[in-house]
TrEMBL record:
Membrane association type: Multi-pass membrane protein
Annotated localization: Membrane
Membrane keyword on record: yes
Segments passing through the bilayer: 35-52, 59-82, 94-115, 122-145, 157-175, 187-209, 215-235, 255-280, 300-326, 357-374, 380-400, 412-431, 437-455
GO molecular function: amino acid transmembrane transporter activity
Protein name (record): Amino acid/polyamine/organocation transporter (APC superfamily)
Primary residence: membrane
Gene3D superfamilies given in the database record: Amino acid/polyamine transporter I (1.20.1740.10)
GO cellular component: membrane
InterPro entries: AA/rel_permease1
Species assigned in the record: Actinoplanes italicus
């Protein structure tokens, strides 16, 4: 195993062996069904309740094709995640895969990127949770929380209390144990799928074909432009790979990753077909809650808005849970490898979780969610995810060449062709992001490089004389 240089690669055996180190050993307590539910929990959130309106405004009824195209774009990267997650069943997801294939510096860059991606994402989703809670209270009881305790200072409030409460509640749940967390997520996934089934059944009971013509008013350009937006409604399946170290049977991770993406694609397509069957693209595009608008204006069922608002609250809660879980496991892996303070990788012996690390991250994210109007910074989530997709696809190709004999419970078919297509899709979508997003992203990476050379390089386990926890 190479121990020198910024591009030193961690041997796969070393990475897997570190998972059994005393004091940093996570419990293998998550089954395949629960892992699949984690993927569904991370993917189905505000996207399905909001993005249909934005997509239909661009592509018209052909937004159905846009949803399918976005799913295909994700599928290539999902295949690569599946191979690496089952072959390297270690916390850290793309960070760990990069460490085993592209070297320590690249691993640090992607890990630092994922910390930003997941942290900003959790804070943003928590803020969205508060907004949807207000929508539910208004629809069901005609009451909404005052701005003073439901909005950031720059938006006329004092602090966002609902966002703080949901982050702290999820923090408590994650500290208590992974078993409790995945069980709670499974319940929430069942509820939000039931809400979507309710919408689909009611919509098909009032279905008409008049809104399907013209089918593609903006042509192919409109379909692909809508797909670029809708792509982000599928983000989340990669969070399943962060739980690979706690999976009872890591060889089943491909089933969970690809299964969750397939389930969400079916629900997305059925939902958008049903929505267009009762409401025009213009009606949905004009509303911040397009599904509720479809039932209200298209089917005349305004009472259903409260049910959909409740479904949105539950859906977003499970997204906060899974994405925050993913961030703690990536940070945990970086700490255990010595690139960040190794004392934070300590696992609580009672709960079997990195409790100290989880609490620290929970407090930091709750402050961010309480005080910062996130706005366009959320685009950093998009560029961070796509960057991870690029490296994971490349990682499959590299590991096939450097470790051809390594056991692989799942292999991406037609490699390197399919991983290269995954890279092409990700790069194409990255080029469509604004310049400001790129500048913020590069600024964050510059800060990360300073931390790596000042701390991570010197404290890395690759260069440590022993494996005793160090600060």
């Amino acid at each position: 195993m190479a121990r020198h240089g910024i591009f030193a690669v961690r041997d796969v055996g070393s990475l897997v062996g570190a998972t059994s180190a005393e004091g940093t050993q996570l419990k293998r307590a998550v089954g395949t069904t629960q892992l699949t539910a984690m993927g569904v929990g991370a993917i189905i959130g505000t996207g399905i309740f909001v993005v249909i309106g934005k997509g239909s405004a661009i592509a018209g009824p052909a937004v159905i094709v846009s949803f399918m195209l976005a799913a295909v774009a994700c599928a290539f990267s999902a295949l690569s995640y599946s191979e690496l997650a089952s072959s390297i069943p270690v916390s850290g997801s793309a960070y760990t895969y990069a460490y085993a294939t592209l070297g320590e510096l690249v691993a640090w860059i992607i890990g630092w990127d994922l910390i930003l991606e997941y942290g900003v994402s959790v804070a943003a989703i928590a803020v969205g949770w508060g907004g949807n809670l207000n929508a539910f209270l208004d629809a069901a009881f005609g009451y909404a929380l005052p701005d003073a305790i439901s909005a950031a200072p720059e938006e006329g409030g004092v602090f966002n209390l609902p966002a703080v409460l949901i982050v702290l509640a999820i923090t408590f749940l994650l500290v208590r144990g992974v078993t409790e967390s995945v069980k709670a997520n499974l319940v929430m996934v069942v509820i939000k799928l039931a809400v979507l089934v309710f919408f689909i059944v009611v919509a098909f009971a009032n279905f008409g074909t008049g809104n399907f013509t013209p089918f593609a008013p903006a042509g192919v350009d409109g379909i692909t432009a809508a797909a670029a937006i809708i792509f982000f409604a599928y983000i989340g399946f990669d969070a399943v790979s962060t739980g690979s170290e706690e999976a009872r049977d890591p060889s089943k991770l491909p089933l969970a990753i690809l299964g969750s993406l397939a389930i969400c694609t079916v629900f997305y397509v059925l939902t958008v077909v049903a929505a267009i069957g009762i409401a025009s693209p213009e009606q949905m595009a004009a509303s911040d809650a397009p599904l509720a608008a479809a039932l209200d204006q298209g089917a005349g069922l305004n009472w259903a808005a409260a049910i959909l608002a409740l479904g949105a609250v539950v859906a977003i809660t499970s997204v906060v849970l899974v994405i925050f879980y993913g961030q703690t496991r990536i940070f945990f892996a970086m700490c255990r490898d010595g690139l960040m303070p190794r004392r934070l990788a300590a696992v609580n012996q009672r709960y079997g979780t990195p409790a100290r690390l989880t609490i620290i991250l929970g407090l930091l994210i709750s402050v961010l969610a309480a005080l910062v109007p996130l706005g366009t910074i959320v685009e950093l989530v998009n560029i961070g995810t796509l960057f991870a997709f690029v490296l994971v696809n490349i990682g499959v190709i590299v590991l096939r060449r450097t470790r051809p004999d390594m056991p692989r419970p799942y292999r991406v078919p037609w490699s390197p062709l399919l991983p290269l297509i995954g890279v092409a899709f990700a790069v194409y979508l990255m080029t469509d992001l604004p310049l400001d997003t790129w500048l913020r992203f590069l600024g964050w990476l510059a800060v990360g490089l300073l931390i790596y050379f000042a701390y991570g390089y010197r404290h890395s386990r690759l260069r440590a004389t022993d494996d005793a926890p160090k600060g």
